[in-house]
Design brief:
By secondary structure, the protein is α+β, with helices and mostly antiparallel strands. The protein has a single domain, classed as OB fold (Dihydrolipoamide Acetyltransferase, E2P) (Beta Barrel). Helices cover 21% and strands 31% of the residues. The chain has 3 helices and 5 strands, in the order ααβββαββ. A 5-stranded mixed beta barrel has the order 1-2-3-5-4. The radius of gyration is 20 Å and the shape is elongated.
Length: 153
């Protein structure tokens, strides 16, 4: 059965604009279970080169306040936070009435991801606020965000 291209386009665009939301109770539980609840100031931002909408970012921060710290961090501690953000891009337009499978695949790959928790924003040097973190498996003072897009307040 072939669906008219207009119907398929409406279905895809409708799905692309949907956003996933984590139940607020789960978000609060994740915040309570985070090993670190700190107030920090970003002193540098590093985005490694890469392709695709899901991008890794590293923030070097100075701890300015400690609300809870399993790692025994103190004000003045310098740590690195690994996070991610979604780089917004325009979908590649479909130019044919009956695109090939490869053209459909390229179009769908150009859409923003529609499944998953809210992504955190890309923060700038100088940002100051509360973060919820968990320690990474690597040695040193390296941490990951604990509550996806709700890790920064």
């Amino acid at each position: 059965m072939k669906l008219p291209i207009a119907l398929v386009s409406i279905m895809i665009l409708g799905a692309a604009t949907a956003s996933a939301i984590i139940n607020p109770e789960i978000t609060e539980k994740m915040k309570k279970e985070a090993e670190e609840r700190l107030n920090v100031k970003i002193v540098s931002v590093h985005v490694p080169k890469g392709k695709g909408p899901h991008r890794t970012v590293f923030y070097d921060v100075v701890v300015v306040g400690v609300e809870r710290s399993k790692a025994k961090l103190k004000p003045g501690s310098k740590i690195r936070i690994e996070a991610y953000y979604l780089e917004k891009s325009k979908p590649k337009p479909l130019t044919k009435r009956h695109p090939t499978a490869e053209e459909w695949q390229a179009y769908l790959a150009s859409l923003e991801p529609i499944v998953g928790p809210k992504a955190p924003p890309l923060l700038k040097k100088g940002w100051q606020g509360r973060v919820y973190l968990n320690r990474t498996k690597s040695k040193g003072k390296s941490f990951r965000i604990a509550v996806h897009g709700h890790s920064f307040e």
